[in-house]
Amino acid sequence: MVNPQMVMYEEEFNQIQLVVDRLVREANAKVVFIVDKNGQLIAASGEVDNIDTTSLASLTAGNIAATGGIAKLLRENEFSTQFHEGENANIHIQLVGNRVILVVIFDSKSSLGLVRLRVRKASDELNRIFESLLSKVQEPGGDSPFAEITDEDIDNLFND
Amino acid sequence: MSFINYMAREINCKIVYYGPGLCGKTTNLQYIYERTSPDAKGKMISLATETERTLFFDFLPLSLGEIRGFKTRFHLYTVPGQVFYDASRKLILKGVDGVIFVADSQIERFEANQESVENLRTNLAEQGYSLEKVPYVVQYNKRDLPNVLPIEELREALNPMNVPDYEACARTGPGVFDTLKAVSKLVLTELKKGA
After folding, report:
1. CATH of the domain at B163
2. Which of B12, B127, B195 sits opposite A2 (nearest CB)?
3. In Å, what is the CA distance from A54 to each residue of A49, A112, A129, B12, B48?
């Protein structure tokens, strides 16, 4: 496969969670979440109980993919930032290291300038964490829980 | 490319329904959505035109249960079938773990099916995948209609690699879950191999 398997370990997850938790506070945001480019939710923070993060993750990735498609047609490498302004909610979408997507949802308690500033700082940190995660995943000899699964385990999933 | 989250103990996989326009990809997803218990499914999202043709994709998250202490979650996507939406179709194949090709069994859609399989092959190749390697199953849909081709003929044209294939009627349900189960099994088996 072209892309290495996306794997998340506890250590990196905690580091990522720290960054998004802090970003919620520092940017006065309602919700912050991180999605991989295939639409899988990686981490979320803030008022997440009131929103459907799974759907948001998938749509955000679709949005980034479509924007990437537009960029390609215009011979741009990528449009790394997007901003959508609504009546009450605004959404700031930032591509981090061309690998993951950092999404900040905020209202009138914050401002675009503040969000942009904080996102820039958080992006650098996230970039470093994902780099180290990626190099860890590529190390040989990592034990996977799936080497052990049997055909029976798989069949059992469908016996209902 | 599945996403394994050791922290949340989850495996997330992406399955894409591919096929020519109006073959029943969205109908497959709608049937699955209607017949799945609320705790096992998320919201279904359809980005469609006013006439309910898929514009970008449909999305349905499903939980299948646990395997060795890991929750298995499948994200089902459809692509827009109409020929001119090729740019969108390519995007949805990104990071795919398994593909279901939904064929329209009607005689007059024979060429559209062939064209769509070729298009799938090309678009997968552009993402660095090959149809031979990616978990792949075929569904012959609309078997309840009167003007359909015999299975043998469809199989010969659309399934030369002899992957698992199923007859279906997505509107009323026969074959829909069989197809999904088959591809899910292949995806998990692949995960095991790659482990």
Report:
1. 3.40.50.300
2. B127
3. 12, 25, 23, 11, 19
